Amino acid sequence: MIDIQLDSNAGKAVVQIDGKPFTEYIFGHYICRPSLYPVLTPGGQRLTRAYPFEDVEGENQDHYHHRSIYTAHGLVNGFNLWDENVGGLGHGSMLQRGEPSVSVVDGAAVIDGIVDWYGPGGQRLLEEHRQLSIKVDGDLRIIDQASELRATQGDVTFGDTKEGGMFSIRVPTSMDAKDQGRIENSAGDVYDRGEGEETTWGKRAAWVDYSGPVANGEQWGHTVVDHVSNPWHPSYWHVRGYGLFTANPFGVHDFLKDESLDGSWTLASGDTAPSRFRLIIHPGRGIADNPRIAQLITEYQDSAG
Predict the structure, then answer these.
(1) pLDDT in tens, 10-61
(2) How many C-beta atoms lie closer than 10 Å to residue 186's C-beta?
(3) What pTM value is reported for the model?
(4) Segments making up each domain of the chain, as ranges
(5) Quick one: CATH architecture of 64-301?
Protein backbone atom coordinates (compact mmCIF):
# COMPACT_ATOMS: atom_id res chain seq x y z
CA MET A 1 0.00 0.00 0.00
CA ILE A 2 1.27 3.46 -0.92
CA ASP A 3 0.65 6.66 1.01
CA ILE A 4 1.62 10.31 0.48
CA GLN A 5 1.43 13.21 2.89
CA LEU A 6 2.20 16.89 2.38
CA ASP A 7 4.49 18.43 5.01
CA SER A 8 4.00 22.14 4.37
CA ASN A 9 6.32 23.29 7.16
CA ALA A 10 9.23 21.27 5.77
CA GLY A 11 8.42 22.01 2.12
CA LYS A 12 8.13 18.39 1.06
CA ALA A 13 5.75 15.54 0.24
CA VAL A 14 6.52 12.23 1.97
CA VAL A 15 5.83 8.89 0.27
CA GLN A 16 5.63 5.62 2.18
CA ILE A 17 5.15 2.07 0.89
CA ASP A 18 3.71 -0.48 3.31
CA GLY A 19 4.40 1.92 6.15
CA LYS A 20 8.09 2.32 5.30
CA PRO A 21 9.78 5.44 3.88
CA PHE A 22 10.36 5.36 0.14
CA THR A 23 11.04 8.93 -0.99
CA GLU A 24 10.36 12.60 -0.37
CA TYR A 25 9.61 15.26 -2.98
CA ILE A 26 11.52 18.27 -1.66
CA PHE A 27 10.19 21.52 -3.09
CA GLY A 28 11.05 24.15 -0.48
CA HIS A 29 12.80 27.22 -1.86
CA TYR A 30 15.91 26.59 0.25
CA ILE A 31 17.14 24.46 -2.69
CA CYS A 32 17.42 25.52 -6.33
CA ARG A 33 15.13 22.88 -7.79
CA PRO A 34 12.65 20.22 -6.67
CA SER A 35 14.32 16.89 -5.97
CA LEU A 36 13.44 13.40 -4.82
CA TYR A 37 15.50 12.49 -1.76
CA PRO A 38 16.02 10.10 -0.10
CA VAL A 39 15.10 7.18 -2.36
CA LEU A 40 15.17 3.94 -0.39
CA THR A 41 14.98 0.19 -0.85
CA PRO A 42 12.40 -1.69 1.28
CA GLY A 43 15.28 -2.38 3.68
CA GLY A 44 16.16 1.30 3.95
CA GLN A 45 19.27 1.35 1.75
CA ARG A 46 19.91 4.54 -0.24
CA LEU A 47 19.40 4.24 -4.00
CA THR A 48 20.83 7.70 -4.74
CA ARG A 49 23.78 9.66 -3.40
CA ALA A 50 23.12 11.45 -0.11
CA TYR A 51 25.36 14.46 -0.79
CA PRO A 52 24.61 17.40 -0.68
CA PHE A 53 21.57 16.66 1.51
CA GLU A 54 23.59 14.62 4.00
CA ASP A 55 27.22 13.71 4.62
CA VAL A 56 27.72 9.94 4.47
CA GLU A 57 31.10 8.37 5.09
CA GLY A 58 32.65 6.91 1.95
CA GLU A 59 30.58 8.94 -0.51
CA ASN A 60 32.12 11.18 -3.12
CA GLN A 61 31.25 14.83 -2.53
CA ASP A 62 31.83 16.32 -5.96
CA HIS A 63 29.25 18.20 -8.03
CA TYR A 64 27.15 19.82 -5.30
CA HIS A 65 24.30 20.31 -7.77
CA HIS A 66 23.73 16.57 -8.42
CA ARG A 67 20.68 16.39 -6.14
CA SER A 68 19.57 12.74 -6.11
CA ILE A 69 16.74 12.78 -8.70
CA TYR A 70 15.98 16.08 -10.42
CA THR A 71 15.58 18.05 -13.68
CA ALA A 72 17.96 20.85 -14.71
CA HIS A 73 19.78 22.30 -17.72
CA GLY A 74 22.93 24.36 -18.05
CA LEU A 75 21.95 26.70 -20.89
CA VAL A 76 18.36 28.01 -20.97
CA ASN A 77 18.13 31.25 -22.95
CA GLY A 78 21.81 31.61 -22.15
CA PHE A 79 21.40 31.13 -18.39
CA ASN A 80 22.85 28.35 -16.23
CA LEU A 81 20.12 26.35 -14.47
CA TRP A 82 22.41 23.37 -13.77
CA ASP A 83 25.54 24.24 -11.78
CA GLU A 84 24.66 25.93 -8.51
CA ASN A 85 27.95 27.87 -8.31
CA VAL A 86 28.28 27.37 -4.56
CA GLY A 87 29.01 30.73 -2.95
CA GLY A 88 27.94 32.70 -6.02
CA LEU A 89 24.77 34.00 -7.61
CA GLY A 90 25.42 33.25 -11.27
CA HIS A 91 22.83 30.51 -11.65
CA GLY A 92 19.09 30.25 -12.21
CA SER A 93 16.53 28.24 -10.29
CA MET A 94 13.47 26.06 -10.75
CA LEU A 95 10.94 26.90 -8.07
CA GLN A 96 7.69 25.20 -7.12
CA ARG A 97 4.80 27.62 -7.46
CA GLY A 98 3.10 27.41 -4.09
CA GLU A 99 2.52 23.86 -2.93
CA PRO A 100 1.92 20.87 -5.18
CA SER A 101 -1.28 18.92 -4.76
CA VAL A 102 -0.83 15.36 -3.52
CA SER A 103 -3.20 12.40 -3.69
CA VAL A 104 -3.45 8.65 -4.13
CA VAL A 105 -5.19 7.74 -7.39
CA ASP A 106 -5.70 4.11 -8.52
CA GLY A 107 -2.96 2.91 -6.20
CA ALA A 108 -0.42 5.56 -7.26
CA ALA A 109 0.90 8.49 -5.24
CA VAL A 110 0.49 11.61 -7.39
CA ILE A 111 2.29 14.94 -7.04
CA ASP A 112 0.97 17.69 -9.30
CA GLY A 113 1.96 21.33 -9.66
CA ILE A 114 3.75 24.11 -11.53
CA VAL A 115 7.52 24.59 -11.56
CA ASP A 116 8.71 28.00 -12.79
CA TRP A 117 12.17 28.24 -14.38
CA TYR A 118 14.04 31.49 -13.58
CA GLY A 119 17.26 33.13 -14.68
CA PRO A 120 19.76 34.42 -12.07
CA GLY A 121 18.16 37.88 -12.08
CA GLY A 122 14.67 36.54 -11.48
CA GLN A 123 13.78 36.41 -15.19
CA ARG A 124 10.90 34.00 -15.69
CA LEU A 125 11.95 31.71 -18.54
CA LEU A 126 9.55 28.78 -18.66
CA GLU A 127 6.47 27.38 -16.99
CA GLU A 128 6.46 23.62 -16.42
CA HIS A 129 3.38 21.68 -15.40
CA ARG A 130 4.94 18.65 -13.71
CA GLN A 131 3.15 15.53 -12.50
CA LEU A 132 4.88 12.66 -10.73
CA SER A 133 3.12 9.32 -10.39
CA ILE A 134 4.73 6.79 -8.03
CA LYS A 135 3.59 3.17 -8.17
CA VAL A 136 4.47 -0.25 -6.78
CA ASP A 137 4.72 -3.30 -9.04
CA GLY A 138 5.79 -6.29 -6.94
CA ASP A 139 9.38 -5.58 -5.92
CA LEU A 140 9.66 -2.77 -8.49
CA ARG A 141 9.09 0.93 -7.90
CA ILE A 142 7.92 3.06 -10.84
CA ILE A 143 8.15 6.84 -11.04
CA ASP A 144 6.57 8.49 -14.08
CA GLN A 145 7.40 12.15 -14.62
CA ALA A 146 5.04 13.81 -17.11
CA SER A 147 5.70 17.47 -17.81
CA GLU A 148 4.22 20.02 -20.17
CA LEU A 149 6.78 22.70 -21.00
CA ARG A 150 5.06 26.05 -21.68
CA ALA A 151 6.79 28.98 -23.37
CA THR A 152 4.69 31.63 -21.62
CA GLN A 153 7.38 34.35 -21.58
CA GLY A 154 8.65 34.17 -25.17
CA ASP A 155 10.90 31.74 -27.02
CA VAL A 156 12.83 29.28 -24.84
CA THR A 157 16.10 27.87 -26.19
CA PHE A 158 17.75 24.86 -24.60
CA GLY A 159 21.40 25.34 -25.55
CA ASP A 160 23.87 22.72 -26.71
CA THR A 161 25.78 21.72 -23.58
CA LYS A 162 26.45 18.38 -21.95
CA GLU A 163 25.75 19.97 -18.57
CA GLY A 164 22.10 19.20 -18.11
CA GLY A 165 19.35 16.68 -18.09
CA MET A 166 15.59 16.59 -18.49
CA PHE A 167 15.64 13.66 -16.06
CA SER A 168 18.71 13.21 -13.89
CA ILE A 169 19.96 10.85 -11.18
CA ARG A 170 23.15 10.72 -9.14
CA VAL A 171 23.57 7.10 -8.10
CA PRO A 172 25.23 6.18 -4.78
CA THR A 173 29.02 6.01 -4.88
CA SER A 174 28.91 2.24 -4.28
CA MET A 175 27.07 1.89 -7.61
CA ASP A 176 29.54 3.91 -9.72
CA ALA A 177 30.22 2.04 -12.96
CA LYS A 178 33.89 2.97 -12.94
CA ASP A 179 34.13 0.72 -9.87
CA GLN A 180 31.49 -1.95 -9.12
CA GLY A 181 28.50 -0.71 -11.13
CA ARG A 182 27.17 -1.34 -14.61
CA ILE A 183 25.57 0.78 -17.37
CA GLU A 184 23.58 -0.66 -20.27
CA ASN A 185 21.47 0.99 -22.96
CA SER A 186 18.80 -0.06 -25.45
CA ALA A 187 21.38 -0.06 -28.26
CA GLY A 188 23.30 -2.87 -26.55
CA ASP A 189 26.21 -0.79 -25.28
CA VAL A 190 27.55 -1.87 -21.87
CA TYR A 191 30.06 -0.28 -19.48
CA ASP A 192 30.75 -2.65 -16.58
CA ARG A 193 33.09 -2.27 -13.58
CA GLY A 194 35.27 0.31 -15.33
CA GLU A 195 36.39 -2.05 -18.06
CA GLY A 196 37.08 -0.59 -21.50
CA GLU A 197 35.59 2.63 -22.86
CA GLU A 198 32.47 4.39 -21.55
CA THR A 199 30.60 3.41 -24.71
CA THR A 200 27.23 4.33 -23.18
CA TRP A 201 28.19 8.02 -22.82
CA GLY A 202 26.84 10.47 -25.38
CA LYS A 203 24.81 7.85 -27.22
CA ARG A 204 21.16 8.01 -28.27
CA ALA A 205 18.97 5.36 -26.68
CA ALA A 206 15.33 4.71 -25.82
CA TRP A 207 16.35 3.64 -22.31
CA VAL A 208 19.41 3.29 -20.09
CA ASP A 209 19.93 1.12 -17.01
CA TYR A 210 22.44 1.92 -14.25
CA SER A 211 22.84 -0.78 -11.60
CA GLY A 212 25.21 -2.04 -8.97
CA PRO A 213 25.64 -2.54 -5.23
CA VAL A 214 24.08 -0.31 -2.59
CA ALA A 215 25.84 0.21 0.74
CA ASN A 216 25.05 -3.24 2.18
CA GLY A 217 26.10 -5.07 -1.00
CA GLU A 218 22.62 -5.75 -2.40
CA GLN A 219 22.35 -5.23 -6.16
CA TRP A 220 19.82 -2.60 -7.28
CA GLY A 221 19.31 -0.53 -10.38
CA HIS A 222 17.57 2.36 -12.11
CA THR A 223 16.11 2.04 -15.62
CA VAL A 224 15.15 5.38 -17.19
CA VAL A 225 12.93 5.38 -20.27
CA ASP A 226 12.69 8.31 -22.71
CA HIS A 227 9.06 8.46 -23.91
CA VAL A 228 8.45 8.31 -27.67
CA SER A 229 6.31 11.47 -27.53
CA ASN A 230 9.30 13.62 -26.51
CA PRO A 231 10.31 15.93 -29.38
CA TRP A 232 13.95 14.78 -29.09
CA HIS A 233 13.34 11.02 -28.85
CA PRO A 234 15.53 9.03 -28.61
CA SER A 235 17.54 11.18 -26.23
CA TYR A 236 21.28 11.43 -25.93
CA TRP A 237 22.53 10.39 -22.46
CA HIS A 238 25.13 12.05 -20.28
CA VAL A 239 25.75 8.93 -18.20
CA ARG A 240 29.14 8.53 -16.56
CA GLY A 241 31.11 5.99 -14.61
CA TYR A 242 31.43 8.38 -11.65
CA GLY A 243 27.67 8.21 -10.99
CA LEU A 244 25.92 10.89 -13.05
CA PHE A 245 22.98 9.50 -15.04
CA THR A 246 20.99 11.99 -17.07
CA ALA A 247 18.93 12.16 -20.24
CA ASN A 248 20.35 15.18 -22.07
CA PRO A 249 18.99 15.53 -25.62
CA PHE A 250 20.88 18.73 -26.38
CA GLY A 251 24.61 18.25 -25.72
CA VAL A 252 25.36 17.10 -29.25
CA HIS A 253 28.63 18.92 -29.98
CA ASP A 254 30.14 17.50 -26.77
CA PHE A 255 28.80 14.00 -27.28
CA LEU A 256 29.86 13.76 -30.92
CA LYS A 257 33.05 15.79 -30.34
CA ASP A 258 32.24 18.10 -33.24
CA GLU A 259 32.17 21.86 -32.58
CA SER A 260 30.45 22.47 -35.92
CA LEU A 261 27.27 20.81 -34.64
CA ASP A 262 24.54 22.57 -32.68
CA GLY A 263 22.02 20.52 -30.74
CA SER A 264 20.09 23.50 -29.41
CA TRP A 265 16.31 23.22 -29.36
CA THR A 266 13.82 26.10 -29.23
CA LEU A 267 10.27 26.07 -27.93
CA ALA A 268 8.54 28.96 -29.70
CA SER A 269 6.64 31.58 -27.73
CA GLY A 270 3.17 30.35 -26.83
CA ASP A 271 3.94 26.73 -27.70
CA THR A 272 3.98 23.70 -25.43
CA ALA A 273 5.91 20.44 -25.56
CA PRO A 274 5.97 17.22 -23.53
CA SER A 275 8.87 15.99 -21.42
CA ARG A 276 8.09 12.49 -20.21
CA PHE A 277 10.25 9.88 -18.51
CA ARG A 278 9.73 6.64 -16.60
CA LEU A 279 12.07 5.45 -13.87
CA ILE A 280 11.90 1.76 -12.95
CA ILE A 281 13.75 0.99 -9.72
CA HIS A 282 14.55 -2.70 -9.49
CA PRO A 283 16.52 -5.25 -7.49
CA GLY A 284 19.26 -7.05 -9.39
CA ARG A 285 22.11 -6.17 -11.71
CA GLY A 286 20.86 -5.14 -15.15
CA ILE A 287 17.45 -5.98 -16.57
CA ALA A 288 18.01 -9.29 -18.39
CA ASP A 289 16.89 -11.46 -15.47
CA ASN A 290 13.60 -9.61 -14.92
CA PRO A 291 11.25 -9.74 -17.93
CA ARG A 292 8.78 -7.47 -16.14
CA ILE A 293 11.12 -4.50 -16.71
CA ALA A 294 10.99 -4.98 -20.48
CA GLN A 295 7.19 -5.24 -20.25
CA LEU A 296 7.01 -1.97 -18.31
CA ILE A 297 9.21 -0.25 -20.91
CA THR A 298 6.93 -1.46 -23.74
CA GLU A 299 3.74 -0.54 -21.87
CA TYR A 300 5.07 2.95 -21.24
CA GLN A 301 6.09 3.52 -24.84
CA ASP A 302 2.70 2.29 -26.03
CA SER A 303 0.90 4.63 -23.65
CA ALA A 304 0.15 8.34 -23.90
CA GLY A 305 2.84 8.91 -21.28
Answers:
(1) 999 999 999 999 999 999 988 899 999 999 999 999 999 999 999 999 999 9
(2) 17
(3) 0.97
(4) 64-301
(5) Distorted Sandwich (2.70)
